[in-house]
Amino acid sequence: MTDFLDRDGKRIDQVLVTFFAAPASYTGEDVVEISCHGSPAVEVQIVNGLLEAGARLAEPGEFTLRAFLNGKMDLVQAEAVRDLIRSQTVHQARVARDQLDGKLSRLLRSAKERLVRIISHMETGLEFVEDPVEPDSRDDLLRDLGRIVGRIRRLEESFRVGRVLRDGFTATIVGRPNAGKSSIFNALCRSDRAIVSTLPGTTRDAIDQTVDLEGIPMQLVDTAGIRTARSPVERLGVKKSLDYVGASDLTLFVVDRSRGFSAEDARIWTELKDTPYLLVVNKVDLEAVLRIPSELESGARCRSDVSALTGEGLDALRRAIRKAVAPESDWERERVVITELRHKECLQRARQRLCEGMKGYRDGLSEEFPLYHLRGALSELDAVTGETTVEDLLGQIFSTFCIGK
What we know:
By secondary structure, the protein is an alpha/beta fold. 51% of the residues lie in helices and 14% in strands. Strands 5-6-4-7-8-9 form a six-stranded mixed beta sheet, with helices on both faces. Strands 1-2-3 form a three-stranded antiparallel beta sheet. A hairpin with a 2-residue loop joins strand 5 and strand 6. The two termini are 25 Å apart.
């Protein structure tokens, strides 16, 4: 503990100074950390004092960039630091933590080691032409390459769920007036966010709120009832509702169990039938009048029967929404998922190069032709973890970090 003094020798605060010696610090360099009391005014004075003494403010992501450059972590782990800081739900934090712990890096390292062994074997056959690779050995190498391709393909496919876990998704509630859209919106938000009224057309504009859906951030949107509009304002509301349907990851089509299937319901279904939607049958606490067309129900991801008034079926609806965007088998098992588009594109290019190399090798071409593609695939895998990353890419990635970290 010591006093931090200003340029006139007056005490600003009593602080704790901690020294982290290289290479055991976060960045791998000698680091001094100053811990002060949490007053913003005190923090500003201390930072200004350090700047006056010759220090400078860190660039966005500079500490993590230094850690990467000093070999404390690879690029996948560095990107995971940013995702962990930004995480808002338990599962977002878990996915980021797994990548920071090196799960994805270890899986890629294993695939790269197997690919290097294959490349080395083929290069041996190329160098020693008097001792060619036997046909059985060729088959073994092709099988090993096929296993690597399969692993990379599974990682590619995990991006669909990984993106949802990291960034969340948008779900839009649509239906005709008085179907109970706003009541379902409030129930899913667990708050009275939208005005609920028996008068049709109460909701004229879209209302949205972010909801933690069992660990996945969901932007839930309540829209105006879709019907033949009687005023310019109502027509704008209906148009905006249809626009939201086109931009959403999932649509909740709410129908009223106590009323017959109308031309308005049919029009709504026509607008969303080619998009992912759940059929939500509301007001199960009332007598059933509704007869749902078979093609509407068969086209839905699933059907949920609920009562926004009593709460019946709402937990099942939450599970159905989650399953529609992130199937449980894809994200709750001990399985590595990728969350970055950059990773997916590198893996896609690596898989394509591997497949091209396998085809040439299977067709009996000399080793140098498939080797060209296999080395290219190895380079793409290296790019994921940053082993062959150019300076421009590093600048682009670390500029997305918060200041300093």
